[in-house]
Design a protein that fits this description.
Blueprint: E1 4-5, E2 10-11, E3 17-21, H1 27-38, H2 42-56, H3 63-75, H4 80-83, H5 88-97, E4 99-103, E5 108-116, E6 128-137, E7 143-152, E8 158-160, E9 168-169, E10 178-179, H6 180-187, E11 204-205, H7 207-216, H8 219-222, H9 226-239, E12 241-242, E13 254-256, E14 266-275, E15 282-290, E16 295-302, E17 309-312, E18 324-325, E19 334-340, E20 344-350, E21 360-363, E22 373-376, E23 381-383, E24 386-394, E25 400-407, E26 415-418, E27 439-440, E28 445-447, E29 450-457, E30 461-468, H10 469-476
Length: about 475
């Protein structure tokens, strides 16, 4: 097979930074900083702010808005009365002291996923606009999601949109509303949950409203065992959330940073797919949430990459990493490629996108380059010959390779073809990096009759290869 490596490389950059709230341990330290700024002469405040803006305003959009947002976090605490009397400049300065920069891709930029862009207007004939997500890893090995956009032209040239160099961490939308039914369906997966806790809540509520009602109610004095149910409720509300609308920001400036305790150490390896159902397609991105100890299967859903909902997956078959959703229902059911037990690939079906209880083994290691472990490399694409699914295999010296299988269109548990050699292996210039000897991807794009495959290069960079669709199908169908 003729595989063409493109002269494209994206490397991790410590210059890619976002702002975050600088959390200090203990209220006393916060009070001390507040007092010091309260006592500052106005001229010193002006000079200090001027110097800060000179150094950092060019690195972030609307930095004053960030300072005010962080000031408001402080102002909601014990010093609210004092801070309400602060002049605007002192508010800005205090907010600046409680702001920090975080280099979200200082360590690695890898594991790309790629889908058709929701906006295909204004293109030349034979061109396609795409959207690519990547896993960015920064200080503390915390992973987040970043995006790049571009065009594949009629000659299969890959042209990326110019980046502004600014990045914005999408904020959690705290006013998102939940229904009792939403909570009831999810709490059913926790046998110890007592549904009587929901009796004191209205039919619809926000997280803040629910916690306020529960705090004011005397239900825990009557039944202290409900405390465990409260913890479950908080977990459900924490891991099922929405992000504030980001329509005013270009997609390639957006960063989805961990927003819940379950993903506090990382949003890992998102696999986006454009899902067709009716006339309004939706994009789904399965990912692994990691808190430093446990993993959890999560789902990003969006129609336009401006508004995002984050949802947890539940059920007996949700136990490992690397879920990849098919781009459409088959025989009336959602279909997912998964992995149970770490080494074999599974397939599972469900009428409910968020609940997966049953699975069956799809394929297991056969060749030496996949003896240690197999998994998918993103969602499959539909071809006339069948569902084309990229796979990854792990062999000796923890060497990762990319291969492929072909599944029946109507019964994807049936394997029609399997490559007997890897499709892509790290060459001598790709073996060294953050994680050596790895090529890996979380998705591919079909452009006319050519496959566009972005791939991680030893977890330190992202490159591209292309291959003709007919060529790989000819190898799979023998």
């Amino acid at each position: 097979m003729k595989i063409t490596r493109k002269d494209i490389r994206f490397y991790a950059s410590p210059k890619a930074v976002i702002t975050q709230f600088f959390q200090l341990p203990g209220n006393d330290r916060v009070k001390h900083v507040v007092k010091r700024i309260e006592n500052l002469d106005n001229k010193i405040v002006e000079d200090c702010l001027s110097e800060i803006k000179k150094e950092f305003a060019g690195r972030h959009k609307n930095i004053e808005e960030t300072f005010i947002n962080h000031f408001n976090k402080i102002a909601s605490g014990d010093d609210a009365t004092i801070l309400s009397k602060f002049p605007f400049q002192k508010k800005l300065l205090l907010g600046a002291f409680f702001t920090k920069e975080y280099s979200f891709q200082a360590a690695a930029l890898f594991n790309p996923s790629i889908v058709t862009h929701p906006d295909q207007s204004g293109l030349q004939p034979g061109s396609q606009r795409f959207l690519m997500s990547l896993r960015a890893t920064g200080e503390g090995h915390i992973s987040s999601v970043v995006f790049k956009t571009g065009i594949v032209d009629e000659l299969n040239n890959i042209l990326f949109d110019e980046s502004s160099g600014y990045f914005y961490s999408l904020k959690k939308y705290n006013e998102a509303s939940f229904s009792k039914d939403f909570i009831r369906k999810r709490s059913a997966f926790f046998p110890e949950f007592k549904f009587s806790l929901l009796d004191i809540l209205p039919e619809k509520f926000t997280y803040t409203e629910a916690m306020k009602i529960i705090k004011e109610n005397k239900i825990f004095r009557i039944d202290v065992s409900l405390i465990d149910s409260l913890h479950i409720l908080k977990t459900i509300l924490s891991t099922n959330y929405e992000l504030e609308s980001s329509a005013n920001f270009p997609i390639n400036e957006k960063v989805i940073f961990p927003n819940s305790d379950a993903e506090s150490m990382g949003i890992e390896d998102v696999r986006f797919v454009k899902f067709k159902e009716g006339e309004n397609p939706c994009y789904y991105g399965t990912y692994t949430a990691y808190n430093g100890h446990l993993i959890k299967a999560q789902l990003i859903q969006t129609k336009d990459f401006n508004e995002f909902k984050i949802r947890s997956l539940y059920g007996d078959a949700i136990s490992d990493k690397g879920m990849a959703l098919f781009p459409e229902k088959i025989n009336g059911k959602y279909v997912m490629i998964s992995r149970q037990g770490g080494e074999k690939m599974s397939i599972m079906y469900s009428h409910d996108l968020y609940v997966w209880n049953e699975f069956q083994t799809l394929i297991e290691p056969l060749f030496c380059w996949e003896f240690m472990q197999m998994g998918n490399c993103g969602s499959p694409i539909k071809t006339d010959a069948g569902w084309l699914l990229l796979t990854h295999g792990v062999g000796a010296i923890r060497t990762y390779v990319i291969s492929a299988i072909l599944l029946d269109l109507n019964d994807p548990s049936k394997i029609l073809g399997r490559l007997d050699k890897p499709l892509l292996v790290a060459d001598k210039d790709e073996r060294d990096g953050y994680v050596p000897n790895v090529v890996y991807t979380c998705g591919l794009l079909l452009h006319r009759d050519v496959l566009i495959i972005p791939y991680a290069v030893s977890d330190s960079a992202t490159g591209f290869v292309t291959i003709g669709l007919k060529e790989i199908l000819n190898e799979l169908i023998k």
